[in-house]
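Please, why this fold?
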Amino acid sequence: MIDYPRYDRDGWRRWVPSWRLVSGLCIAFFGCLVGAAGIAYAMVSVPVIDESATAQNNVYYWADNTQMVATGGDRNRQSVDLSQIPKAMRNAVISQENKTFYTDSGIDPKGIARAVFNMAKGGETQGGSTITQQYVKNAMLNDQSQTISRKVKEIFVSIKVGAEEPKDKILEGYLNSAYYGRGAYGIQAAARAYFNVDAVDLNPGQCAFLSAMLKGATYYDPAGSVSIDPAATPDANKKRAHSQMQDTLDKMVEYGHLNQAERAKYTELPTTQHPQSNAKLGGQIGYLVRLAKSSVLKSGKVTEQQLEKGGYSIYTTFDKKKVDEMEKAVQKVYKEKIDPKKRPETDTHVQFGGASIDTKTGAIKAIYGGEDATKHFTNNADVTGAQVGSTFKPFVLAAAMKWGVRDPDLGPVQAQDERTIASPKSLYSGKNKLKINNYDGSVWENEDGEQWRQENDGQDSVGDPPDYKIDLREAMRESVNSAYVQLGMDVG
């Protein structure tokens, strides 16, 4: 029974509640609060990992298994196991963001109290988040809003995740789902974006630097972000990043994750590469990726929809050294032989294409698809939209000299000892509109069933009439189409 107003008191004292009443109400309120929290905890289930938090690139590798490029997929991310993430990276994040990570329940009551206090003052609910909470927010809730309802749900889900999931799995998930700036999601993509190395090869200084990017790359990326905020200049960002990095390294020493001798090696801001997100498919890389992608799809093992979702590691036969050498060779020839200003009619639209193939295995070692895959979109080494024309005549002659022409009295597939080796002195007809025959003398017809007549450039017959016989050397010099089309039919 509640004794209120207090009948044993007179005047205003009747309206002053007793300490028993106050304490009882407090206990009741606390009990209701605990009960409500218990019910809410029981009702909350751990959400499945959001697809966007695991979306990855496809990673293409050179023949020596080094990374060529990561592209495609919904996100610039390549998830890696915790064993591939340096201990220095794990310790840098723990030291800076959540030193009690391995012992807490998934939340930080003091941090939450700070967030509530800030909210009461009209500030944001941001802050007070443990690594577990940030992982839940990034990977499960997919909600970056700073609202009370989101924060409450985050707390309850984090407690459950902290109780049910191993800490190492949570840390791995956080490092793979977090955003590090430069379009990089996850530590592997970040290592590539800033230092062009794999995550496993990061040193402690680089790890401390990348942990600073988690606080907001806009204000810590040395490249600057003045398009977002004029205050985020390269110089200002470098100072902030250096200060944050040094603070992280000091905390790593304080918490026993790094010794003083090792820490002394990293007093300067590490050198980062210039942002290259827009250029990663430039040069020959784009052509190589398209060719590899086409090969994967033709294999039938992966559908285009599956490949577009990302997460695949694609190992190629492309040799980086040979690709670079082929590109340099083309550039050298272009510089020495092609001049559109002097010869606009003949040189303006000259294009190059090439491929280097291992004749023993058939493996494609290098290609030259064009000047730049982001400027010249047709892959001249693979797409047949533009005919190679007379540049193929030397290959026809080389095949005839090596393998020989077929015997018209034998079947279409013949061994080399059944063939007759040709030479530059071999005679063929250079007649314009020459009727082309199959190797066995039968008529070669086009797709409409009509006899094919090969025209020469300029509609001229070349050679001695009436048969217009000409040796293959002269036919090469004069670029006689009829002679070389017939030779190609004979070689097969």
Notes: The first helix runs from residue 19 to 43. The mean pLDDT is 84. The first strand starts at residue 58 and ends at 61. Residues 378 and 384 are 9 Å apart (CA to CA).
